[in-house]
From TrEMBL:
It comes from Sphingobacterium ginsenosidimutans. PANTHER family: CAAX AMINO TERMINAL PROTEASE FAMILY PROTEIN, SLR1288 PROTEIN. This is CAAX prenyl protease 2/Lysostaphin resistance protein A-like domain-containing protein. Residues 68-160 form the CAAX prenyl protease 2/Lysostaphin resistance protein A-like domain. Keywords: Membrane, Transmembrane, Transmembrane helix. Coiled coil: none annotated. The chain crosses the membrane at residues 21-45, 65-87, 99-119, 125-141, 148-167.
Length: 176
């Protein structure tokens, strides 16, 4: 789509010069923050208020380091790069510059994040809500810093840490 429009990845915020040590550190810190929020706030809250089925989608990695490594690689490519480029980079920009031009940036951020949440509907409603909140988190990072690198690193590392926690059998195991 970018090529068809005569644009490049630079036009959506994927700028080589913005891949800096600062961007990397911000990506790491924000990923750790998001993991902590999910593990210590979101998951315990939904488990307190709702009957939540066990999350089993990634159980296949629990018994195999090879499967974990392959899944982490796929998560980095799909979650970190693909999803951030498509949702925060492309869709967010199309909404802002064409479809919802003149609307409040907050409404557009909300809509992009809602689409991102619905993109995860194959999981369950709690994953859709978590993805929606993650979408808001990563779009705020994107808008705040003007670079896709920070949400790409943050999202990729979040997915990596989450998969390792699933592999270790401790993802979402914190209850109150």
């Amino acid at each position: 789509m970018l090529r068809k429009e005569g644009k490049t990845f630079r036009d959506i915020g994927l700028i080589k010069e913005k891949f800096t040590s600062r961007a990397f550190i911000l990506g790491v810190v924000t990923a750790l923050t998001w993991v902590a929020f999910m593990q210590f706030v979101y998951i315990p809250s939904i488990k307190y208020f709702f009957e939540v089925p066990d999350y089993t989608e990634y159980n296949f990695i629990k018994s195999s380091m090879t499967r974990l490594i392959m899944t982490v690689f796929a998560a980095i490519v799909i979650g970190g790069f693909y999803e951030e480029i498509v949702f925060r980079g492309y869709i967010q920009n199309v909404f802002e510059k064409r479809i919802f031009k003149g609307f409040s940036p907050l409404i557009i951020m909300f809509l992009t994040s809602l689409l991102f949440g619905l993109y995860h509907v194959q999981q369950d409603i709690f994953a859709v809500i978590a993805a929606f909140m993650g979408g808001l988190y990563w779009v705020i990072l994107y808008k705040r810093f003007g670079s896709l690198w920070i949400p790409i690193i943050s999202h990729a590392l979040f997915d990596t840490i989450t998969l390792i926690l699933i592999y270790k059998g401790v993802f979402g195991s914190i209850t109150y």
